[in-house]
Specification:
Probable inactive purple acid phosphatase 28 isoform X2, 7 helices, 17 strands, 346 residues, PAP14/16/28/29, Calcineurin-like_PHP, Metallo-depent_PP-like, alpha/beta, 20% helix, 27% strand
Length: 346
């Protein structure tokens, strides 16, 4: 969203006729409109929530940026981008505040079981960044899967800026983060591999691991390969990523259940492309204070996760699809596609 100070923060890359009355409030109106039209169950923000260099008070800007989410009463979560910390708060302070906001289910970092007591949890130490966590979505109340995860949403801190061999580059997802993610994935697969009991009746087969979706800000270097492949959407801007190949794609593929990853950073890209069986999708440009292209309408990505039903009971995820919603007069819906369908894997 690149939020600044609200009414006094001007828009970027809009037509001259729009500029005079355009501000951060256009971003707020667009997000509210999205919520009204799509009626979502959950909201995710993929970083650069505020544009730090445009505000003297990071906390105030954060509250204004997330106002539509808070007022909606919906659960929401966020990660940081490379601009959030450029004001009065560091990355740890920013994620701490975000995690404490109304209806936020964001976490500063993952929790682990505290050895001092089974019911106590402690923040995982020794992990890089702030804003690494997983959200498990359980099946509907009353269904066989009500106590089991049917979908995992993982969020990762891709950093901001770094220096490698004397050269400035963008941040990247570190090995400590990938170790945690792989460990979590293995634990989830072990749980689904056990003989589970529902209502006293054991399942006669193993349940497949829950599909997973990822969210982080800075794209991985492999996204550049998609320039030479068929994508759904528009590839209009060079991929601005780290010079470091940290093995993110390899780790995600090894997890075997990641179906899609949603990224930000390059605001003039809004495409989805497939790398080794995983869809990587940009959201496009939602914020009016972020750079864009004159005449290219602001937009946001929507994701739909559908459950299957057997014997009059909801079971696991059947299909995951996505599209984009434009901030035009018709709130146009474009580029609808299926990211994953359980039937296609059979």
């Amino acid at each position: 969203m690149h939020y600044g100070q609200g009414l006094i923060t001007r828009c970027r890359d809009v037509s001259p006729s729009e500029f005079k009355y355009c501000s951060d409030l256009n971003t707020t109106r667009f997000v509210k409109r999205l919520i009204e039209i799509e009626k979502p169950d959950f909201l995710a923000f993929t970083g650069d929530n505020i544009f730090g260099s445009s505000t003297p008070d990071a906390a105030e800007s954060l509250f204004k940026a997330f106002q539509p989410a808070i007022e909606s009463g919906l659960p929401w979560a966020a990660v940081l981008g490379n601009h959030d910390q450029e004001s009065t708060m560091n990355r740890e302070e920013l994620m701490t505040l975000i995690s404490l906001m109304d209806y936020s289910v964001s976490q500063v970092n993952p929790f682990v079981q505290n050895l001092s007591g089974q019911r106590e949890r402690a923040l995982l130490t020794g992990i890089d960044g702030f804003g690494n966590y997983n959200l498990s979505v359980h099946g509907p109340y009353g269904s066989l899967f009500s106590n089991f995860s049917v979908l995992n949403l993982f969020f990762l801190d891709s950093g901001d800026r770094a220096t490698v061999e004397g050269r400035r580059t963008y941040g990247w997802i570190r090995e400590s983060q990938l170790n945690w993610l792989r460990g979590f994935s293995q634990a989830d697969q072990d749980e689904h591999g056990e003989c589970n009991h529902f209502g006293g009746s054991p399942l006669t087969r193993k349940t497949p691991p829950a599909p997973a979706l990822g969210f982080f800000h800075i794209p991985i270097p492999e996204i550049r390969q998609l320039y030479y492949q068929k994508v759904i959407g528009q590839f209009q801007e060079a991929v601005a990523c780290s010079s470091v190949h940290s093995g993110v794609l390899k780790s995600l593929v090894s997890m075997k259940n990641v179906k899609g990853v949603f990224i930000g950073h390059d605001h003039n890209n809004d495409f989805c492309g497939n790398l080794d069986g995983i869809w990587f999708c940009y959201g496009g440009n939602t914020g009016y204070h972020a750079y864009g292209k004159v005449g290219w309408v602001r937009r946001a990505r929507v994701v739909l996760v559908e459950l299957s039903e057997k014997e009059k009971s909801w079971t696991g995820v059947q299909k995951i699809s996505t599209w984009k919603r434009l901030d035009d007069e018709l709130s146009s819906k474009i580029d609808e596609q299926v990211l994953w369908d359980q039937n296609s894997e059979k």
